[in-house]
Design brief:
By secondary structure, the chain is mainly beta. The chain folds into 3 domains: 129 residues, DNA Polymerase III, subunit A, domain 2 (DNA Polymerase III, Chain A, domain 2, Roll), CATH 3.10.150; 136 residues, DNA Polymerase III, Chain A, domain 2 (Roll); 112 residues, DNA Polymerase III, Chain A, domain 2 (Roll), CATH 3.10.150. It is 14% helix and 46% strand. The chain is built from 6 helices and 29 strands. The chain has a 9-stranded antiparallel sheet with strand order 6-2-3-4-20-19-18-10-14. Strands 15-11-12-13-29-28-27-21-25 form a 9-stranded antiparallel sheet. It has a 5-stranded antiparallel sheet with strand order 5-1-7-8-9. Helix 5 runs antiparallel to helix 6. The radius of gyration is 27 Å and the shape is elongated.
């Protein structure tokens, strides 16, 4: 006599495939095959009992969590609950049809949770094995009660702030405190006024800062900001770049007509929440003390050079081809008489030199630096002209553009 198997359902939805694919792609960004347990390859999908048209998708690699809670007009919730399924497997099946209606449900056998996930679409039925929802890790939260500080950054300024700092952050695990972007809000004061020499207190200034010890990027991300509490924390670079990736764009720039106006950064419980629209990233903050970056930036920089961006990029790239692997360096000799800058490099086997036109202020000087560090910055420099500044011979090279200051530390002129 065979036992009869009673099946009941918890999570059960009918939805459009073209709605589910972007939800799972975005919410499942942190699903990873690098972890030992298969649950980390999964997304967790949850229906919201108090919001009958809303579906929540989560993923995590234990360092960063992605959460999307999205409402749909064309969705039918037939059963409330959660399921946990491989992001890769589910997307593979959904993309085999790409559009149309589908039915997705988790199955319970004999009243107990199973790992069976059933997907019906295009006249076929797939059954795949997921993971137990109970095994999915509990995601950290930065709720209103746990929030110590928060800031709203305009969408375009957040995008440019991350874009112009992420490449300067350290990648080496040995320098853990530098493996992120410092977000801080600092007070500002205007120039001295009147006989009292008092300085006018200005609106607080928010800064994004990154460094790997050999270069430094500082971006001012706005003045008229909504700020609460003492905003200061080192956010992992991965969390910031992942958030930037999902900002709506048009021709590579933030789409200011998308309806989104700002990104909210909330700090609390040793974590940060980065949210906009229906999307949220939660990440643990980087521990450690960020270096005193202001000491690195020369305040007096009488040598000023204005280059055509394309000409400078070409000269630096060509010079990098003739630098030695052991000591990547390019030298700039500034000649105020000819109003030209000689760019040169050499190694044991080859050498390079080229004169580049520039508008020059200040005295003759010579500086040397790693060309790759300036080329990285030029890749995200949107202007046609590039301004470099220096305190003098053998000083750091400083690039200034809009609200962005990029510093490349000097190397030996020998």
């Amino acid at each position: 006599m065979t036992d009869t198997v009673t099946k009941t359902e918890t999570f059960h939805i009918k939805a459009r495939i073209e709605d589910l694919i972007p939800l799972i792609t975005q919410g499942g960004q942190q699903a990873s095959s690098q972890q030992a347990h298969p649950v980390y390859e999964c997304v967790k999908l949850t229906t919201c009992a108090d919001a009958p048209k809303v579906l929540r998708c989560e993923s995590t690699d234990l360092e960063v969590a992605h959460i999307v809670e999205r409402g749909f007009d064309d969705i039918e919730i037939l059963g409330n609950g959660s399921l946990c399924v491989s992001k890769k497997e589910l997307l593979l099946l959904l993309r085999s049809t790409k559009k149309g209606q589908c039915e997705l449900r988790a199955v319970i056998h004999d009243g107990e949770a199973s790992r069976d996930i059933v997907l019906e679409m295009d006249g076929g039925e797939f059954t795949i094995q997921g993971c137990f929802v109970a095994d999915f890790p509990e995601l950290p939260q930065v709720t209103e009660e746990l929030t110590d500080a928060a800031i709203m950054v305009p969408l375009d300024q957040f995008f440019q702030g991350v874009r112009r700092t992420e490449f300067s952050a350290a990648r080496e695990r040995m320098r853990y405190a530098l493996n992120g972007i410092l977000v801080t809000v600092e007070g500002r004061s205007g120039p001295p006024k009147g006989k009292s020499k008092k300085r006018e207190e200005l609106d607080p200034q928010a800064l994004f800062v990154s460094t790997d010890g050999r270069r430094l990027s500082v971006v001012e991300v706005g003045h008229e900001l909504t700020v609460s509490g003492d905003v200061k924390g080192i956010i992992p670079t991965l969390a910031m770049t992942n958030a930037m990736k999902w900002i709506p764009k048009k021709k590579g720039q933030p789409d200011l007509l998308s309806g989104l106006e700002a990104v909210r950064l909330a700090f609390g419980n040793n974590h940060v929440s980065i949210s906009f629209g229906d999307f949220e990233i939660v990440s643990r903050l980087v521990e450690g003390s960020f270096p005193s970056y202001k000491d690195v930036i020369p305040q007096d920089r009488p040598v000023k050079l204005l280059f055509d961006k394309g000409e400078l990029q070409k000269a630096l790239y060509q010079a990098s081809l003739c630098s030695s692997r052991e000591a990547l360096a390019v030298r700039m000799d500034i000649d105020t008489g000819t109003r030209r800058v000689k760019v040169s490099s050499r190694s044991a086997e080859k050498s390079f030199k080229r004169e580049v036109k520039a508008h020059i202020e200040g005295e003759d000087a010579a500086i040397a630096f790693n060309p790759g560090f300036l080329l990285d910055a030029l890749d995200v420099h949107d202007g046609g002209s590039v301004q470099l500044e220096a305190a003098g011979t053998a000083s750091p090279c400083v690039m200034v553009y809009e609200s962005w200051t990029h510093v490349v530390m000097p190397v030996s002129l020998e």
